């Protein structure tokens, strides 16, 4: 199965995914961003974009990579990846469903003030204009389609450990 951790930048997906992995036996983290990085390395290059998710090959490559990893390893893949465009999520989830791969879709959520503070205080990436520019599109997705598609885990006043435990308990129930 796949445990997909969605949400905007700064919500805590990466931190939470490692903790979820430690709580779910036979699980491993698959960072779908690596698929985007592979596409970015193609030269002379793909069409100019501000986000590799806009390249049509990214979505089916994520599906196929996840499928092949699961076929090889079994168990559970924990995928921390922001997907804020509903059509992109539908394409990915339909592709996984086509291969009969069950998906638990969690949205790691925090209020806008908390997200800004986390992004500004990030010790690894530092304040990031790229990450900040997605706050509004996240807010819109969270108000609309994400509410129907994902299980919200509000991390505004919750530690990553508490969020991971809530996700692991939900998956195991």
Question: How is this structure best described in words?
Answer:
GO terms for molecular function: ATP binding. This is ATP-binding protein. This protein is 51% helix and 14% strand. The protein is an alpha/beta fold. Strands 2-3-1-4-5 form a five-stranded parallel sheet, with helices on both faces. The longest helix is centred in the middle third of the chain and has 16 residues, at 58-73. The radius of gyration is 16 Å and the shape is globular.
Overall morphology: globular
Briefly note the CATH topology name: Rossmann fold
Number of strands: 5
How many domains in all? 1
Radius of gyration computed on alpha carbons = 16 Å
Count the helices. How many?
9
Task: Supply the helix-strand structural class.
Answer: alpha/beta
Strand share of the residues?
Answer: 5-15%
Briefly, what CATH class? Alpha Beta
End-to-end Cα distance? 14 Å
What labels describe this entry?
globular; 173 residues; ATP-binding; alpha/beta; 5-stranded parallel β-sheet; Rossmann fold; P-loop_NTPase; nucleotide-binding; ATP binding; ATP-binding protein
SSE order and pairing:
Elements lengths: L1 E5 L6 H11 L3 E3 L3 H8 L17 H16 L2 E5 L5 H13 L4 E7 L2 H9 L8 H4 L2 H9 L1 H5 L1 E4 L5 H13 L1
Parallel strand pairs: 1-3, 1-4, 2-3, 4-5
Brief synopsis:
The chain is α/β, with parallel strands linked by helices and 173 residues long.
């Amino acid at each position: 199965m796949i445990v997909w951790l969605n949400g905007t930048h700064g919500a805590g997906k990466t931190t939470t995914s490692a903790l979820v992995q430690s709580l779910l036996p036979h699980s491993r983290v698959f960072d779908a961003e690596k698929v985007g990085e592979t596409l970015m390395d193609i030269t002379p290059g793909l069409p100019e974009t501000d986000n590799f998710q806009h390249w049509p090959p990214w979505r089916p490559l994520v599906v196929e990579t996840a499928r092949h990893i699961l076929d090889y390893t079994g168990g559970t893949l924990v995928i921390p990846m922001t997907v804020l465009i509903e059509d992109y999520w539908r394409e990915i989830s339909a592709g996984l469903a086509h291969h009969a791969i069950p998906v638990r879709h969690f949205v790691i959520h925090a209020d806008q003030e908390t997200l800004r503070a986390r992004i500004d205080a990030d010790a690894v990436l530092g304040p990031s204009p790229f990450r900040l520019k997605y706050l509004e599109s996240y807010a819109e997705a969270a108000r609309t389609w994400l509410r129907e598609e994902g299980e919200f885990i509000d991390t505004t006043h919750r530690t990553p450990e508490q969020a991971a435990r809530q996700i692991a308990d939900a998956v195991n129930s």
